[in-house]
Amino acid sequence: MAGKFSFQLDATDGAARAGVIETPRGQIRTPAFMPVGTAATVKAMMPESVAQTGADILLGNTYHLMLRPGAERIDRLGGLHRFMNWDRPILTDSGGFQVMSLAGLRKLTEQGVTFKSHIDGSSHELTPERSMEIQRLLGSDIVMCFDECPALPADRDRIAASMRLSMRWAQRSRDAFGDRPGHALFGIQQGGLERELREESAEALTRIGFDGYAVGGLAVGEGQEAMFGCLDHAPAMLPVDRPRYLMGVGKPDDIVGAVERGIDMMDCVLPSRSGRTGQVFTRHGVLNIKNARHQDDPRPLDEACACPACRNYSRAYLHHVFRSQEIISSMLLTWHNLHYYQDIMAGMRDAIAAGSFAQWRAAFDAGRAQGDIEPL
Ligand SMILES: [Zn+2]
């Protein structure tokens, strides 16, 4: 596909940044939130509906897609974009993290990871080279390096050894990726909560040279305070002229805190997964639609929200379809949550461009402190 991958930083406000990633499949406005389309679908959403929420890019999971339906099959069917009917950019993870969290009987060596599928127990191997091949077969626009990271807390020696293995794999990922105009390869910084290890990792990645850089190894059980403590210094170690991606984050206040600390891209299953369990995110915090307080309430989830769930349906209806386990419940609540997340991102982009991020942040905090509307 013709065209180039590039990143333009348009505005900064404190450490917060706003910009645009150009790809042959369209622009990604940053800071960007990427909904997760694990198995070639954002669950309960049509792809055109995902686009209507304001998402410029989706995330796909290499681990899931390689097991089912298989990367070679998706390639024969025209690639992931055509397969799932999403023509905008797609970022794929490397599979490394999910092998560690989902697969059975893993064996980790210098070469890579062998594991048994959580679906049928079949044996598979992932290496930096195979991960690059799978992500190429999928047709991913932004490819992630194959890496490994321990759950936190872990001792320093374990974190250091794991980070250095990931840096050797980053070089092998770079070599295997080759030269693919219009496609980007991102390196992943590791090092847990250890500042010196984060610096060593950032130096190793910068020496190799990537189109973007992820802060990896966070949101793995360390808690928000420790994560923010790391983000107070980790993003600034990465090249200023490349996008910075925080993987697997998070709740609305995690996202705002990460952008405040210089992160440009994030992904998380939380808004879509919560939509299926009845948990709703609004300007006033979290509400649970299954609570009886909503059963006679004719008001929308959030009167200021422009999503279809809020424009056309009452809390009473959403409560009813959730309690009745109707499919439309997952559809509407997921749509609302994803729309709200994209509203946050748009609000932050505008505020950073206007130099008013602190005021936007104060209004965000005030809305949450107010809490959900009083029951009728
Ligand atoms: Zn809504």
From TrEMBL:
Pfam families: TGT. The keyword Methyltransferase does not apply. It catalyses: 7-aminomethyl-7-carbaguanine + guanosine(34) in tRNA = 7-aminomethyl-7-carbaguanosine(34) in tRNA + guanine. One of its GO terms (molecular function) is metal ion binding. Residues 248-254 are annotated as: RNA binding. Its EC number is 2.4.2.29. InterPro entries: ArchSynthase1/Queuine_TRR (IPR050076), TGT (IPR004803), TGT-like_sf (IPR036511), tRNA_ribo_trans-like (IPR002616). Keywords: Glycosyltransferase, Metal-binding, Queuosine biosynthesis, Transferase, tRNA processing, Zinc. It comes from the Bacteria. HAMAP family: Q_tRNA_Tgt. Binds 1 zinc ion per subunit. SUPFAM superfamilies: tRNA-guanine transglycosylase. It comes from Pukyongiella litopenaei. The active site is at 93 (proton acceptor), 267 (nucleophile). Residues 15-366 form the tRNA-guanine(15) transglycosylase-like domain. Homodimer. Within each dimer, one monomer is responsible for RNA recognition and catalysis, while the other monomer binds to the replacement base PreQ1. Its cofactor is Zn(2+). Zn(2+) binds at residues 305, 307, 310, 336. Substrate binds at residues 93-97, 147, 190, 217. This is Queuine tRNA-ribosyltransferase.
